[in-house]
Design a protein that fits this description.
4 strands; 61% helix; 7 helices; Alpha-Beta Plaits; 4-stranded antiparallel sheet; 223 residues
Length: 223
């Protein structure tokens, strides 16, 4: 069997560095494969092999995962009806919500405890800025340790791919909170916690379609 053959594949379903690493691991384990190189942006895989690896073998290897060899049969779905992408987009959005909430509500609590005379408008502005900052830091940390990005690449990716989502989430979450509670934290009032839950659900739902669209159309996700 002659070595040095190269097979180029298009793999659908890869959305992050973790996906690329999984595909590389699965394909590298196939008999006859010497080396696998994954280009995430192009959704392309180059395999150096001893012999031609059949399409059937590749399809079977990827079958337990969400990745698929381009051109193989799949159940067609409309653009907005891909359950797998909705699930991934929801997971991404939840990470964003956690990051935004940390800074947002911490800032509100701090201002009401130590600077009660700050105007409501300024309080909302500072809360939004704090939420954006903690969300970017949270996303950056996830990319650094879970996806093995370098720190600078993680920060740049978190900012560029998530910023619009974060802004939409922050604006909707704070607007909802303000309309229900007037922006005042009242921990002893059960209605405050209800309003907080409503605000967080609204903040989650606002950017979800955008995150789905980016993931479905451009195969971009940063988590």
């Amino acid at each position: 069997m002659k070595s040095g053959m190269t097979q180029t594949l298009k793999i659908e379903g890869m959305t992050c560095a973790g996906c690329a690493a999984k595909v590389e691991h699965v394909l590298a384990a196939l008999t006859g494969v010497e080396k696998v190189v994954v280009n995430l942006e192009q959704a392309e895989v180059k395999m150096e092999t001893h012999h031609t690896i059949s399409q059937r073998t590749i399809v079977q290897a990827l079958a337990p995962y969400r990745y698929r060899l381009a051109g193989t049969a799949a159940t067609p779905v409309s653009f907005w009806s891909d359950a797998r992408v909705w699930k991934r987009a929801a997971f991404n959005t939840l990470n964003c919500l956690i990051g935004c909430s940390l800074g947002d509500f911490a800032m509100i609590l701090y201002l009401q405890a130590y600077h009660p005379n700050v105007t409501m408008t300024m309080q909302m502005i500072l809360a939004v800025l704090a939420g954006l900052a903690t969300s970017v830091l949270f996303e950056t940390t996830l990319l650094r340790f879970r996806e093995k990005f370098a720190w600078y690449a993680a920060l740049r990716t978190a900012f560029s791919m998530s910023f619009i989502s974060m802004v939409a989430m922050e604006v909707v979450m704070n607007a909802t909170d303000f309309m229900i509670t007037g922006g005042k934290a009242a921990f002893g009032n059960p209605m405050y916690w209800t309003a907080l839950a409503v605000a967080m659900v609204a903040g989650f739902m606002a950017p979800l379609p955008y995150n789905y669209y980016k993931l479905k159309k451009y195969n971009k996700a940063c988590h």
